[in-house]
Give the backbone structure.
Amino acid sequence: MADRAPLLEVKNVSIGFDTSRGMIVPVNNVSWSIYPGQTFALVGESGCGKSVSALSVLRLIPTPPGRYLQGEINFEGRNLLKLSESEMRKVRGKDIAMIFQEPMTSLNPVYTVGDQIMEAVRLHQNVSRSQAIQIAVDALGDVGIADPRARLSVYPHQMSGGMRQRIMIAMALACQPKLLIADEPTTALDVTVQAQILELLRKLQKERGMAMLLITHDLGVVAENADVVGVMYASHVVEYADVNALFDNPTHPYTQGLFRSMPKLGVKHERLETIPGMVPAPGRFPSGCKFHPRCSSMNGDAVCTKTDPNLREVAPGHWASCHHAPGYEIAAITTPHLTYKRTPLEVMSG
Amino acid sequence: MTTISYPDTPAAESNPGAFRLLLSRPLPAISFFLVCGYVLLALLTLIPAFTRAATDPLLQLDLPDGTSITEYAPPSLRNFPSRLLGTDIQNRSVFYRTLYGTRTALTITLFASALSLGIGVVLGVSAGYFGGWLDEFVTWLVATFSAVPDVLLLISLGFILKPIDLGFLGWRDADGSGMPIPELAVIIFALGLTGWVGICRLIRGEVLKLRSFDYVSAAKALGLSEARILFRHVLPNTLHLVIITFTLGAIGYVQAEVFLTFLGLGVSDAPSWGRMIDDAKLELLRGVWWQFASATVAIGVLSLALSLLGDALRDVLDPKTRSRR
Amino acid sequence: MWAYILRRTLLMIPTIFGVLLLTFALFNLVAKDPARVVAGRNATPEVIEATRAKMGLNKPAFFNPAATTRPVAITSGPLAGTTRDKSTLERVGAFFDSRFFDLARFKFPNSIRSDRPVMEIIREKAPVSLAIQVPAFLISLGAQLAIALFVASRRGSGIDVSVTLLCVASLAVPSLSLYIAFQWLLGAKLQLFPVAGWETGIYAIQYAALPIVCAVFLSLGAGVRFYRTVVLEEVSADYIRTARAKGVSEVDTMLVHVLRNVMIPVVTNTVTALPFLMFGAIISERLFQIPGLGGLLVEAVFNQDHGVVMAVTYITAVFYCLALLLSDICYTLADPRVSLR
């Protein structure tokens, strides 16, 4: 079992926004890797920078106010940040595709479903119109839409939220991308539909060997779908581990707080636990460790108020950025990337 | 690579009164003072000497070579300030005429706004608050008046009102026939009866919204009379619309005066910017540009100031954007 | 679909009736008797009556019961020269022979100046106005959209700011000033076009050019500002982000995705602007001596030509109501989200 090269490698990326009140940095020195076929989940609350990180992979951040301050984003060895705009456009939708949170507004209301899928197809593949129609029909069938040929001439507003998200997925997958970025794909949907969509994504991943960057705030979704997890807080990745390792042994106080606040079946709760305080907004980050005002493991240590910790490998394959994490002082500062592990499908097929 | 460190900019957190907020930024402040300046100039012209200077021809001046100037003197620094902007065909000072034009424009604006806002607010509030057949009637009236294009309604009203004589009111001339309606009254009525539609719609919409707010229901539950609710709770919350409409509407009234004068429905005895521009249409071909330029610049600057002021007022007074500050 | 159209048409009827009432009230009840105005201040009652008869104003305002009993003269056949009573149908017709119903059926008092039916004059002069207004409208719409799309895609840039400033400035100056300035600059100073005048046939082009250029430039201010706002709203929509994520180029995003959504307000604006194409160019036609409907209106105002002013107002208002109805229908066709319920 040799170490494969990562499909996507994000190294020390920082993104700044110029506002009228100065520059804010919503994504600061983040690193992570995704291997072919893997699902990497980026977890965090609103405002932690996970959506901006996701958009930054495809360079969809508007660059008058936004700026890439440092770092590389290597996709199959090529640094995406160094590509020209037209080269980048060839990557978007073809090698890397993205689906968004709001299926209601993410589809153009004046064009039919078929038109929008075929636009993606004909942008990246040199096919005739009838071939494109067939590809679109197949794509709709793959996402579980009944009578796909009839659905081609339907408008987005005529479909339910769940169906619209399926169409988004069909549109994203029509050109067989190697990586799918899913920005909170189920947050705007009903609970039952959520489960269906996630199952659909898992199935499509297995069939195509596609990797996925899954942005979510829901630990339950992470447990079901992720192979590797990065926990984000206030512009940093504060913990990074294999999903089982994270759930067995959450190391960073923020992650611990998240787990504690989840109600557990069978356990009697007097009161739900919360993490005291509020998530700071970019531009108003505290000095030192950005979590320290809300941290219960600080023990009055001054280093937390002065120095921002880095991600360090505190255990094999488990990174955390906390001064008080066991093993932090002696740990090496390395860019996190979990070495390739076989996905369950490969394990099963021997 | 290390984490980027950067100075954290502190958030500006303050909540000054709306007026101070308006004046805190340079552009709205300048606009406000400009408009005040125009108002002051208009008030200045109430001094009789000004009227004389604007309507009487300048004394003929003898040039060294023995000729005298009787018309179209170009701008010069002699006889400051009468000849500052030159003279017109009757050798009247363009400078003083421009100043006097402020008075005409602002008088028209003031009274026409009062009329249109008065009608609009009364009808809008009644329709929005009392509903029922009153609302149906006002809505129908608004639809009817909006179906006639503003320009045509204005022209029609001016056309109809101009020949009217006020004999039916008992006001008679020296020779016994009815006193003709003053030209200013024609303009004011025409503008007022055209302009009420916009504010009526806005007020009605706002009142309908306010009617469903909880504090109105609470007031009713306390037993307050309709009138008191109306005057103390509903009306004050529509005031911001009135202020904004007044400011932005003034632009339309000032420019409408020019248009009406062009059609012969304007004031003919007092100086006005519209009259100056209308006279200028033949002057330019003769190379006389000063009357045209003065009036146009006077209107342009005032309109620009009002426009910026209106936008700023909208930002400051609109409850939706106010909460964002 | 037809039920929708029928329903909207029925809703339009009270408004058209209101327009009829308003026009009638203004011109026949509020206005000073046009016969007296034309006859002059010191005319005797006989002269006024004669003028009134000449103008066709000697009918009662709303209903005409007296006319139902008036006998009809026989002009041909064996009984020529005698009179007979009106048939029932004729009686009904006579009852409604009043100034109010004349207005309703678009029958206006003759023009004072030329003593011809107003509708005839309008039919004659309309093509001249349209020859200028239609090209001007089309060119300015294209220009406004192009500039708005261009400026919106470079939001906040120097060119965006300067274009916005120019628009605001052009709206601050009265349109009469701009027309006079253009006429002087392009006609007299640079001598690019004739200053005023008109000729029929193909030679009209040289006389139409300057009014068209002026109309286009004057419309840019408000139009660019409006469409810029619309475009900016669309550009920040979520589905634009999706399009970019698919790899669509900036140009195609603007032209395929944004423009199609912008078309919805464009269609409604265009349809409601149509009635004004005939009568709207009042300043332009007077300054450039174009013998169109705008000029007709101005002359009518100066000459106290009652019938013409009333006719223009009424016809435009009715057309505008119809245009609103049409734009409603077009809106449902243009926007797939709107259902015809």
In short: The first strand of chain C starts at residue 72 and ends at 73. DSSP finds 16 helices and two strands in chain C.
